[in-house]
Design goal:
Elements lengths: L5 E4 L6 H12 L2 E4 H10 L3 H12 L5 H13 L7 E4 L5 H13 L6 E6 L2 H14 L8 H15 L2 H7 L3 E5 L4 H15 L1
Parallel strand pairs: 1-3, 1-4, 2-3, 4-5
The structure holds adenosine monophosphate (AMP).
Length: about 190
């Protein structure tokens, strides 16, 4: 299989992380979740973590300069792979443009951006449920959840147009059981490879 790089896209709680894991295993991809990288840095109390903590706790996006550098470092330190699945990145136009030019500089490109489509009411109940079992402060507070939707709606949703213009945007119905959604994603990726 040729190198295949996927962006998994969607609002908070849409199942990006869960589905990225299935895609990673099935297509042997390297999974990069910027949210997980931030949380790891926060729990290890690194300089980056201390910088990011404040934003994550409010549900605000971390500034592009910090996020883009972290993402590039993660790619450059994991280069011998069959492809990447970018989960939660890019989230701004600047991040998307930087990702394209960074990938070109290492002879790679995004092959497909796949959005998981779920409505906000369903997402709020999923996130509050998730907040009961993880200890993410940003999943436990309705105002923080709404702020994350607002960040998505004002800064991230424009990327649909960005990737549509490149003929790389696909949307999958994100409602139903985890298994249903996984098979929709596998069918789509199989048709693209
Ligand atoms: P997630 O786990 O993807 O829901 O991300 C959790 C939080 O990490 C977000 O609310 C942001 O504060 C931060 N974050 C994750 N990815 C990004 C990104 N690409 N750009 C800016 N902030 C991000």
């Amino acid at each position: 299989m040729p190198m295949f790089n996927i962006v998994i896209f969607g609002k908070p709680g849409s199942g990006k992380g869960t589905q990225a894991d299935f895609l990673k295993n099935k297509y042997d991809l390297y999974h990069i979740s910027t949210g997980d990288l931030f949380r790891k840095n926060i729990s290890n109390k690194t300089k980056l973590g201390l910088e990011a903590m404040f934003y994550l706790d409010k549900g605000d996006l971390v500034p592009d300069s910090v996020t883009i550098k972290m993402l590039e470092n993660e790619v450059l330190s994991n280069k011998d792979v069959n492809g990447y699945i970018f989960d939660g990145f890019p989230r701004t136009l600047n991040q998307a443009e930087s990702l394209d030019s960074f990938l070109v500089s290492i002879n790679l490109k995004i092959n497909a951006t796949i959005a998981l489509d779920v409505n906000e009411n369903e997402l709020i109940s999923r996130l509050l449920d998730r907040g009961k079992i993880n200890n993410r402060s940003d999943d436990q507070d309705i105002e923080k959840i709404k702020n994350r939707f607002n960040e998505y709606n004002t800064k991230t949703s424009i990327l649909i147009d960005f990737y549509q213009k490149q003929d790389k945007f696909f949307s999958v119905d994100g409602k139903g059981t985890v298994n249903d959604i996984t098979s929709r994603l596998f069918d789509l990726v199989d048709s693209l490879i």
